[in-house]
Amino acid sequence: MRKEKDRKRLQGRKKWVAAAAVLLVAGAAVWLCLSLFSGTEEVGFEQVSEDKLPQDITSNVIPEYKTLERALACCVGEDVYVIVTRGEKPTSGFKVDIDRLTMEEKDGKSTLIVYANFTDPDKKSAFSQIITYPVKVVRTDLKKLPDDIELRIQY
């Protein structure tokens, strides 16, 4: 009698485990479909060297935002630039790079996702004890500014 109860209990547990596995797989499939078809697209861009930056960016935008850690975009002429600032740092050796840009459309609003790589100096190396403001600027393929910008940082 006891063996029969144990066998039925085990079968019941197997059914619960199977149901949980099915729900997990179904949830993953839904998430994947939403991710693939959510209106996300890559945005092309090119790095802009410091000596080629438009004067509006070097004299107005960077000085205003260099002490903050953020991503922003601005139009200069017909070009849309994306700027990532890392804030004030106590030494040289801190870097910022823009890895990729994507545009998400959701509820009629466009959000530019900026994937930035932040690199800190190696603690074993010597760096100049000077205040720095790491900044990276890229020119994008965008024709207009997005409604919102989101910075996603990777170290």
What does this protein look like?
The structure is a single chain. The protein is of the alpha+beta class and 155 residues long. It is elongated, with a radius of gyration of 24 Å. Strands 1-5-6-8 form a 4-stranded mixed β-sheet, with no helix packed on it. The chain has 2 helices and 8 strands, in the order αββαββββββ. The protein has helices at 2-36, 55-65, and strands spanning 40-43, 45-47, 69-76, 79-86, 95-106, 109-119, 135-140, 148-154. β3 (69-76) and β4 form a beta hairpin. The longest helix is centred in the first third of the chain and has 35 residues, at 2-36. The protein is 30% helix and 38% strand.
The whole-angstrom Rg is 24 Å
Order of helices and strands: HEEHEEEEEE
Low-confidence runs of at least 5 consecutive residues:
none
The average pLDDT value, as a whole number, equals 87
